[in-house]
Amino acid sequence: xxxxxxxxxxxxxxxxxxxxxxxxxxxxxxxxxxxxxxxxxxxxxxxxxxxxxxxxxxxxxxxxxxxxxxxxxxxxxxxxxxxxxxxxxxxxxxxxxxxxxxxxxxxxxxxxxxxxxxxxxxxxxxxxxxxxxxxxxxxxxxxxxxxxxxxxxxxxxxxxxxxxxxxxxxxxxxxxxxxxxxxxxxxxxxxxxxxxxxxxxxxxxxxxxxxxxxxxxxxxxxxxxxxxxxxxxxxxxxxxxxxxxxxxxxxxxxxxxxxxxxxxxxxxxxxxxxxxxxxxxxxxxxxxxxxxx
Length: 293
Ligand code: AMP
Ligand code: MN
Ligand code: MN
Ligand code: MN
Hints:
The protein is α/β, with parallel strands linked by helices. It contains eleven helices and eight strands. It has helices spanning 22-31, 48-57, 89-100, 102-115, 121-126, 137-146, 153-161, 176-185, 202-214, 229-242, 275-278; strands spanning 7-8, 36-37, 61-62, 65-72, 75-82, 189-192, 219-224, 245-249. Bound molecules: adenosine monophosphate (AMP) and manganese (II) ion (MN) (3 copies). Adenosine monophosphate (AMP) is lined by residues 17, 42, 69, 136-138, 153-154, 157, 253.
């Protein structure tokens, strides 16, 4: 097969906190020149069979994906899983347990917002997703924009949904060890998502990379919608230092909210192993158009 450059291995659909269906995302990825795609909904894989069918209908190669929330050094970190078997029971159970705390957390967030005069936030957020297990801060952010409290979702996060703000509720997610094991034991590869987003000290970041590797993690996102160009360089160096493969993904959520569209980021820097080379045998290839004649 010819070499893949335009892989987009991180985005969200209506199955978690995106606003497009898996089918609409596949069409958008195709229109933007994506060759290999993965849908990575938060802590959930119920969109995978639909996404794969839509990918193939659009001539895209597909890797199964998810983005698992974990707690590391008292902070929330995201681990992307790629290329796993979506029917693996241990992975399904692990994701189910990870999602389980979201309903109560959302009620606590709503209580916090009520204390500063914002009422009905639980019902308002739930309306966007339907399932309390899948409710996320993004859905609260959309409700606060819709009800005129803030002008955009960034403002909501800054004023209400981050550390020490009225709608923030500390939460214990999965462990790094479990997330990496669920993914790798289901035949996939674990990837540290958008490492520049975490407010870690250099020592904490070093610990994250070392422990991730010790548990069997083999890749890190280098080119993502969450990184600046200098951060591509920094994490390309980290990938080389730790002997990790590199991933590329927009983290696209919504045409109205995301600044980076599917498939539009720069290519991975040279001298790195693309994570999709480790996963060559796990790629669900698009059917080739049948030969004429
Ligand atoms: P949760 O998993 O409920 O904590 O929600 C996390 C989601 O909120 C992330 O996946 C992003 O989609 C979104 N998010 C986090 N921080 C911000 C921010 N500063 N601005 C906009 N969206 C954010
Ligand atoms: Mn999200
Ligand atoms: Mn993330
Ligand atoms: Mn994401």
